[in-house]
Amino acid sequence: MSTPGTQTTFSAEDYFRTQHPPPTLEHDVEKVRAFVTRHREEGRPVVLVTSGGTTVPLERNVVRFLDNFSAGTRGATSAEYFLQAGYAVIFMHRQFSLQPFSRHFSHSTNPFLEFLEIGPSNPMSPIEPGSASEEGETVKVLPSMRKELLTVLRQYHAVQRAGTLLTLNFVTVDDYLFMLRAVAQELEPLGRRAMFYLAAAVSDFFLPTQKMSEHKIQSGKGSLQIEMDQVPKILKPLRDYWTPEGFIVSFKLETDPSLLIPKARQALERYGHKLVIGNDLYRRKFEVVFVEKDADSKDGFRETWVRLPEGKTEIEEEMIKKLVEMHAAWKEEKGRT
Amino acid sequence: MSTPGTQTTFSAEDYFRTQHPPPTLEHDVEKVRAFVTRHREEGRPVVLVTSGGTTVPLERNVVRFLDNFSAGTRGATSAEYFLQAGYAVIFMHRQFSLQPFSRHFSHSTNPFLEFLEIGPSNPMSPIEPGSASEEGETVKVLPSMRKELLTVLRQYHAVQRAGTLLTLNFVTVDDYLFMLRAVAQELEPLGRRAMFYLAAAVSDFFLPTQKMSEHKIQSGKGSLQIEMDQVPKILKPLRDYWTPEGFIVSFKLETDPSLLIPKARQALERYGHKLVIGNDLYRRKFEVVFVEKDADSKDGFRETWVRLPEGKTEIEEEMIKKLVEMHAAWKEEKGRT
């Protein structure tokens, strides 16, 4: 699928010059602009949370694609804790990945049809439009589910009323990269009040549209050979040009625990952003490691392990608490200089 | 990722000998056996509906995988119409793809938190456990949604009471192939009363475990090269050995409409099963083509277009009606010989 000798490493500039933005980008940017303007006026910090995996289509009329494992649990859960901490949240997620609030009742773990029962319409109450059926039956939430739903629904409605959550969708790695650049440029005027919490599982490789096959790749011609190019390292322009003052947090997911800290340090060296959160695929719900640069330390780095406290269920609660403190200190520091 | 010169075409036998079955297979087979036995005694026809895409993991500790585009709409919708037509349905689907009944309210098109409202607990009704909160509030279904939910919920409960739906899950193409073989072997005793409606989007290529990398593939070494082997053509042993009397329906999805009928005919020639349903990626909700062998026709084939009738919303209603007739005729034919 690729000609030997053609380019396999794109700079960010080359990438954005040669690939195509998603058709809905302008529309999304307008929503972001209005959202940022309002929260800027109200003095609220804003965090961009990215969540879920990106796809790499192998065909222009897409049937097959490369994907990255991610249900979006980390991002959706973290977004709720940022909202609780008073942030305005831009939640940029993979289509159909988990979302704040609805995540509690989604997919097959907690199918919502199981919450509902058919019961008699209440003859005492006035007739409500659309509620009555020929048989005088109506749909009700099971009593055993009401308490849990009520808790989530209260938070959900409060966030809707406050207008502190803006949701954006992506599918492909191209959608993601163009959208990240555009959102970063909109957040730039916030300076240190903007945080970037980049939890999406972004593909390291992509197939330039120029190399993509038009139709479904046919089998029957033996094995399938795919050669993909490296995705440009986007953290570099993000930190250097698009949002030099933003508080940028990236993630490293590894399956070999011995690579976690070396890879995190390498990323900080290369891109110069604030923090890498390292997680091991199998222990990521119980512990993560915050890796920062630290001029006072012997080797120039500081590692802090964050663990799920006894009696708690979501490590994101601890992670966000710590991040909010770090972000506040970073804003503070600016004030003093 | 592969050594040149190694095997790239697996026979079904080689495949099942060298690859690994999913750990839950035995457990699933027991459920299928009990389900088939009961419906066989009750004289009900049984259909296996497969639905959703399969993944091909690129790493043993999976972070990246190849996937096939499919939300599972065709399979989930068809399963409902088979249930309505009196079939017992084994619904074998990709984890998190759409399912019968819940499909009407799933994902972001119809998020269920939007159906619910917080209202006062009814002071007239007796106290129900778990329903009351400190503030005397409870969760209710929005009046405007009750009618639609009631219709679906009635069907869902009726199917649960009748026990006519058995749901199985797969993720990878390996899960799918091992599960398909096992289910086919359980359905074999039903002879012509079993139908196979193979709507899942199954990968044509896979990466043998022997060639898979143990950990997450590292970027930073230039481009990614993947070579995948062809998945064995499973329709052949399905038709020849596992269920010679089963009514087997396969699907062809193409993006180039000119390939649709030639590819469907080729599949019938090769595998000798009953029917190929051809669909074009962009028109599949409005028209499909049923391709069968026909000894009386000049070129040996018959094509019948099935189209969405005016005023209807789901082409699957027409498709299943037609299939139920064809299946009945096939059972009938056996009775006469």
Automatic annotation (TrEMBL), chains A, B:
SUPFAM superfamilies, per the entry: CoaB-like
Gene3D superfamilies: CoaB-like (3.40.50.10300)
The DNA/pantothenate metabolism flavoprotein C-terminal domain, residue ranges: 169-285
Domain of life per record: Eukaryota
Gene Ontology annotations of biological process type: coenzyme A biosynthetic process
InterPro entries: CoaB-like_sf, DNA/pantothenate-metab_flavo_C
Keywords noted in UniProt: Ligase
GO molecular function annotations of the record: ligase activity
Assigned protein family: Belongs to the PPC synthetase family.
Protein name as it appears in the record: Phosphopantothenate-cysteine ligase
